[in-house]
Amino acid sequence: MASVIWAKVLDFARWVIDFLRPWRHSHALQAERIHEIIQCIQQDRAGDLRQRLFGPLRLLVPDSTIQRGYGIVTKTFGQLQGTGAPVISNGWWISSIDIPLQFQRAQFGLRLQMTSGGSLLGLRFLPLHELGLAEGWQSPSYVNSEVVESEITLGKGQFQVGGTLCLPPVQTEQSRSPCLIFVAGSGPIDRDSTVLENRPFKDLAWGLACRGIASIRFDKVTHTHPKTFRAQKNVTLTDEYVEHVVDALLHAQRHPGILPDKVFLVGHSLGAVVVPKLATLDASVAGCILMAGPAEPIYCSFVRQLRYLESLDGPEAPYLGKKIEQAQKQAELADSNSLSLSTPAKKLAFGIGPSYWLDYRKFDPVGTVKTLEKPVLVLQGRRDYQVTAEDDYEQWQSALRGKDNVQFWLYERLNHLFIAGDGPSTPLEYMVPGNVDEQVIDDIAEWVLQ
What we know:
Layout: H1 2-20, H2 27-42, H3 46-51, H4 55-60, H5 63-77, E1 80-83, E2 87-90, E3 94-103, E4 107-115, E5 120-126, E6 148-154, E7 161-167, E8 177-183, H6 200-209, E9 214-218, H7 221-224, H8 226-231, H9 237-254, E10 258-268, H10 271-281, E11 287-291, H11 298-311, H12 320-335, H13 354-360, H14 365-371, E12 376-381, H15 389-400, E13 406-411, H16 438-449
Parallel strand pairs: 8-9, 8-10, 10-11, 11-12, 12-13
Antiparallel strand pairs: 1-3, 2-3, 3-4, 4-5, 6-7, 7-9
Helix pairs in contact: 10-14, 11-12, 14-15
């Protein structure tokens, strides 16, 4: 017993010395340690990598967590093919090492943190630009001239939001353009529909402006006034969207450079649920474009998303079972006849109160488009795991088959943001800067200009 205690005391002493000892290794030895860690990762030697962790961390991090963490990276980007020169910042006790990695389908970065004794304190996969090794979002290659943008304000009173009017590069007093109003998806989304390192609405606006089409995009009220808006009693889906979309329509129709009878609504994700209803209520709307539109309520989509993420077997997979069970119960309650204004918000999806979900029932996007006689364009990415081709797009097609005013486009390589990729789509994919595929820009432009 005494020998076991002394062994643990000595282990602890070594950990302390390892952590506190100033860095005295040569650059060659440091490079060797880095190479060993990269090899452990590349060869899927989770046990060996775990042995290189700083002592106390080995007690907290099982091999399975390391395996799952790297597994989700390779599922997203393919196998590691090479590494660039590490950028090393040596401190007195801790060193930070940033390494560019070349995977089959993308470049990504790795940040290592090591003790002065060479033990591993931390390991994180990050976008290259977060490590200072590359730039973030870049203007798409299909934007070949300067667009004209100006700030606008939409809404009234305490819930005003900012927006951007984007006009084609060349306009004369005689020329007027069609215009698109972009309506973003769920959550506190900004005017560019920013998701981590991607700005799909900005890509669309700039790409379409170069093809002669104006647009308005705006920050959602949940982005500009998150606390004040959520503090309101009985908030609804109508409150979240309608006022600002209607104001954007009026702004477009009054602008001297825009054709007032050629203003279209573009809804992405949850925005595609809202857009058909508004098109039926406002005769001046010329038509609508539905991008990755849910055919079922978004709380059902959320359950499917969680199951998909569990199937990827990433680091969070062991903890998703309980979350899926809870989300399923919340979805069933939101769908049931027992939902009422007295139902507690904590029992419903995303902690949003019952007035929101009762109002949601009034929108019925598929049923609404069935009655709509205006032109409708439905776009879907095959690699989208949030709104899927199998569960949502096929319902749209089945319900609307035979309607001459509805067109469909399915893009094999595109994800939820309409950015191209290969392999299974995962949340990690959104951490790599990309642009909306040019074919989507061309298809929308052709449809609008027809």
